[in-house]
Design goal:
Elements (H helix, E strand, L loop, with lengths): L3 H9 L2 H23 L4 H17 L1 H14 L3 E5 L2 H14 L4 E4 L3 H5 L2 H7 L3 E4 L2 H8 L16 H15 L11 H18 L2 E4 L3 E3 L4 E6 L3 H7 L3 E7 L3 E2 L5 H12 L7 E5 L10 E7 L3 H5 L15 H5 L1 H6 L10 H12 L4 H5 L9 H5 L6 H15 L8 H13 L2 H21 L2 E2 L5 E3 L7 H4 L4 E2 L6 H8 L11
Parallel strand pairs: 1-10, 2-3, 2-4, 4-7, 5-8, 7-10
Antiparallel strand pairs: 5-6, 6-9, 11-12, 12-13
Helix pairs in contact: 3-12, 9-10, 16-19
The structure holds iron/sulfur cluster.
Iron/sulfur cluster (SF4) binds next to helix 14.
Length: about 500
Amino acid sequence: MPAFPTAARAALGDTQLRRNLAHATHTIRDKRAKVVAEVEDWEDLRLAGAGVKEAALRDLATHLETLEASLVRAGATVHWARDAEEACAIVARVAHDHGADEVVKVKSMATAEIGLNEALEAEGIAAWETDLAELIVQLGEDLPSHILVPAIHRNRAEVREIFLRRMAAVGRPAPADLTDEPAVLAGAAREHLREKFLRAKVGVSGANFAVADTGTLVVVESEGNGRMCLTLPDVLVSVVGIEKVVATWSDLDPMLRLLPRSSTGERMNPYTSTWSGVTPGDGPQEVHVVLLDNGRTRALADDVGRQALRCIRCSACLNVCPVYERVGGHAYGSVYPGPIGAILNPLLRGVSDEQTASLPYASSLCGACFEVCPVRIDIPSVLVDQRAAVVDSHRGDRVPKAEAVAMRAAAWAFSDARRLAWAEKASGLGGRVLRRFGRTSLPGGRAAAGRLPGPGAAWTGARDLPAPPEESFRAWWDRTDGGRHEGEGPE
Ligand code: SF4
């Protein structure tokens, strides 16, 4: 994937995408605001939610061991996966052990994060997404663009076209008279998926929460497809990030009140499935739980960034983010887009590659993401901290970046009063020249530099550089004696 600025520039040129995104994010945002306003103690609830997750993270190792013991007691098999490769290999092995060449999947960020579908395909196993939006993305051979609504960038006409074009190749075809009415499209998806639900021997899920003391996994969803995946196949494999653990069953209380209002703008989500291991004669008779690290312990070790592991993937921060709203999820190059993706990806993977290192800058730092986050993750602070991590990672570069050279020059000028005075004079002169010869001006008439050549091109390519004032503050102070002789113009 290209770095964020490159990908964002391409996305900004797609007017249909921007229309679809603006419509969808505003609709969900307004719905959320209404149902949140109904809850008098919403701020207390946020504090409680943050407290539950923070307490679980503080003693993560103990809670995970308790979870493992509880799950094993309930008849599940627990696997530990350090990274994506290990996790995918475990799921493939379970499917092979049962002679399965296909699995049905509940929508799961963790399995998308580890590229499970692609890994299973390489092993000759087809993974069918059963969430409607995920199905649209899969059939469209596309990438998810939103945590909650992965096909947010598609409109109804596009969905109809995808169903007509692709469904027949992978199962039951869409009816020839398919219209773009949402209910008709959902009906076609239901018919298409039903045969897959009834045929599959293995189901794959994630989990929204994992309760340590009871060994219970929880999936929260709106369509009921998840419940079908969790109950119909003989074998169930759940891939669960280690940060999903909470200590006790009662810890679910604030979480299950915060999540639906923050994500879909509903007072309660339609389906909450909980399961603990195996129940003889009912549901899957073989249950595997893969506890996934994949960078989470790395994030946990980061004093400022560890709060990102509190995330319950509600997507509220995406829907209020002015940057996300304009570029959509693909520009972030990850299954975790938007403000949470801009911090989570660097925390999980480090900032050594150019694409991940560009993400902490994909924000205006307006703070709207923190305001809506149900578990009070201070995303703007983590973004600033991650920007510092990116800068630190370049300190030893043999050829310093233009920004580093500019900062060193600024430090040199600021460390000596005479140098600073000289720099102020030079900048005033620059301002005068710009005012006389510059061809660009800002709203209000202030002169500005256009796109600069050389190292300044990247910076000025996306920003205005206003002409510096002709007279510096210190020169003004000297001239007017601190404002006592105001009204005398500069020489
Ligand atoms: S960071 Fe907060 S608002 Fe964003 S998805 Fe996670 S929990 Fe929701």
